[in-house]
Amino acid sequence: MRDIITGQKSSLNSSQAGNLILKRVEVKISEDENVRRFLTEEMIVKRKMRILSLVLTALMVTGLGGCGSTDNSIDNTAPQNDTITNDQGTETDTSEVSIAVETPQTEEETVEPEPGSENSDILVVYFSRTGEQYTVGVIDKGNTAIVAEMISEETGADMFEVIPEDDHYPMTYSELTDVAKQEQNDNARPAYAGEVPDLSQYSTIFIGAPVWWGDWPMIMYTFFENNKEGLAGKTLIPFSTHEGSGLSGFDKKLSSACPDATVLDGLAIRGNDCQNDQDSVREDVSEWVTGLDY
């Protein structure tokens, strides 16, 4: 008889051959089951590894997201129509970009005066004009503003600019003089913009303006009258810019407007020098301030 498994001739009888075939089949089946078991266990291990990988990835993403968040951030939207250019030269419209910024919480926000020393008890109040000016042409920084800044630098004073609420003043010199004359004839009191700093923290106040028709500009009388109580008891020091009229009685007029204040000697500076000879003006300001013991 031939072995049906190997195909070789066998000397076994039918019964022996049958038993041999049965054993070989059982071995084959056992081997197949072991293969299936191995494959099943390998699949289970791979599945577990895949699940573990997903869990680790999720944990990493969550950790990174947590590091980038802040509980106290305030959403500030960038101004419209601004652009930022990145390193590649591409412009990005920031009108819809929000930037999280942490800002300290304060009980109350106050408007600070212009730069001076933190604990200054001196204030410089001034009114100044740009545009066409007598003998110097068109200027982009007012003569009185230049002197006011020099006084602040010498004394460490804070600064407050008197700015018209309705700035109707012409830019041309001849038209400006007409408007100034009309205001004087009407004894006008033009309004100024903004809040005056708390005057109680200052002991000395320098007050300056250009000379308009031999007098303070009418808007300065608005300031004197609106702050009469705050100016009482203070030391007031006038200064002017001009082209020939000097101090023009600023000190006497200031004493009349603020009778409860002490008014010291003032300083008059030519507007032409403010624009063309600032070194000389700075020397004059320094000598004047030193002479006043400031």
In short, what is this structure?
This protein has 294 residues and is of the alpha/beta class. It has three domains: 1-62, no CATH class; 75-104, no CATH class; 122-291, Rossmann fold, CATH 3.40.50. It has helices spanning 14-67, 143-155, 173-185, 218-226, 228-231, 250-257, 271-276, 278-291; strands at residues 74-77, 83-85, 91-93, 98-101, 122-126, 131-133, 137-139, 158-161, 204-210, 235-242, 262-263, 267-270.
Describe this structure in words.
This protein is of the alpha/beta class and 294 residues long. It folds into 3 domains: 1-62, no CATH class; 75-104, no CATH class; 122-291, Rossmann fold (3-Layer(aba) Sandwich). It contains 8 helices and 12 strands. The protein has helices at 14-67, 143-155, 173-185, 218-226, 228-231, 250-257, 271-276, 278-291; strands spanning 74-77, 83-85, 91-93, 98-101, 122-126, 131-133, 137-139, 158-161, 204-210, 235-242, 262-263, 267-270. Strands 5, 8, 9, 10, 11 and 12 form a 6-stranded parallel β-sheet that branches. A two-stranded antiparallel sheet has the order 1-4. Strand 10 (235-242), helix 6 (250-257) and strand 11 form a beta-alpha-beta unit. Helix 2 packs across helix 8. It is elongated. The protein starts with 13 loop residues before the first helix and ends with a helix.
